[in-house]
Amino acid sequence: MQSSLVEIPFDNRRIRIEYQWLRPERARRPLVVFLHEGLGSVSMWRDFPREFCEAGDYRGLVFSRYGYGRSTPRPHEEKWRPDFMHRQAREAMPALFDALDIGPGRAHGMPWLLGHSDGGSIALIHAASFPQAVAGIIVLAPHIVVEDLSVRSIAGTRQAYLETDLRQRLARHHDDVDSAFWGWNDIWLDPEFRQWDLRPLLSGLRCPVLAVQGEDDEYGTMAQIEGIHRYAPQTTLLKLARCGHSPHRDQKDPLTLAAVRHINAYTSNLK
Fold first, then answer.
1. pTM over 0.90
2. What digits encode the pLDDT tens for the residues 140-164?
3. Where would I find the AB hydrolase-1 domain in this sequence (predicted)?
4. Which of 71, 120, 228, 240 is 20 to 30 A from 259 via CA?
């Protein structure tokens, strides 16, 4: 499916955001917004958003954040700050939702957010910051604190980018692959980022939450989703065996089954 571009205000300028609607004809069904990982994009999701929406009979929106995919690239001299995920959740996403008429009382209604890795963290920040604007969230391998395991694995990804064909493989999904990679990698390995911590925000979550973690995740431990449950007791936990950092690829079927049940449990019988 062809992507579209929309302009939004961000950081005192106008930027382009790549997006795709999925099954827009199902206008009365829940809308699921997919938030990609730290090296993701619209195309990096592959078929999962479409298959997920078909499984639950949902509408979907997939988009590439600033610096990723076909969205406006990050200038190479621009360094992300430790609050980069907060800015995406509190500034860029509301601007995008305004531009696409998403939200309470708007054409597309209140969304469900399904976020992976950094996208899961952004979903948590957005839902805690705008509790009346989100129907619920599903977070796959989210980060709420920076663990030593995460830093070691991200340092290993840096070496792979420099020494293997990882750069070439990622380049298929980004207009400026170096913009996407170094923006993410540099801030995660910045010593200042070690103090990043979402736990003070989590008690602000009011919506239903499904938090998913693979037992073999090389970027985070079960402490991440258990921490969400500690601060937001309405959270349902899903721990998946034989699953690494990408539950939607490693355990797609059990994830889809649980996530569809989760959404449907909190959704009225819309046709």
1. yes
2. 999 999 999 999 999 999 999 999 9
3. 32-251
4. 71
237 contacts 222 by C-beta, under 8 angstroms:
no
Alpha helices in the chain (DSSP H): 48-56, 84-87, 93-100, 118-129, 148-163, 166-171, 177-188, 199-202, 223-231, 247-250, 252-265
CATH number of the domain that residue 102 is part of: 3.40.50.1820
Q: Angle between the 48-56 and 252-265 helix axes, to the nearest 10 degrees?
A: 50
* Percent above pLDDT 70 for the chain: 98
Q: If we measure between CA atoms, which residue out of 170, 48, 37 comes closest to residue 20?
A: 48
All residues at 6 or more sequence positions from 198 whose CB lies less than 8 Å from its CB, including other chains: 121, 124, 125, 143, 144, 145
Going by their DSSP bridges, the two strands 209-214 and 111-116 should be labelled as unpaired
In order, the DSSP letters of 212-245 are EEETT-SS--THHHHHHHHH-TTEEEEEESS--S
> Which range marks the domain in which residue 261 is found?
4-265
Helix (H) or strand (E) holding 113: strand 111-116
Task: Give the model confidence (pLDDT) of 25-37 as tens digits.
Answer: 999 999 999 999 9
Q: Do residues 31 and 23 make contact, with C-beta atoms less than 8 angstroms apart?
A: no
**Residue 86 included in any domain:** yes
235: its two tokens: 């959270």
Task: Specify the number of domains making up the chain.
Answer: 1
Closest CA to 141 of 255, 253, 264: 255
In a domain, 182, yes or no: yes
Burial of 162 (0-12, 13-18, 19+ CB in 10 A): exposed
On whether residue 271 sits in a domain, the answer given is no
What is the mean predicted confidence (pLDDT) over 222-236? 98
The residue type found at 262 is: H
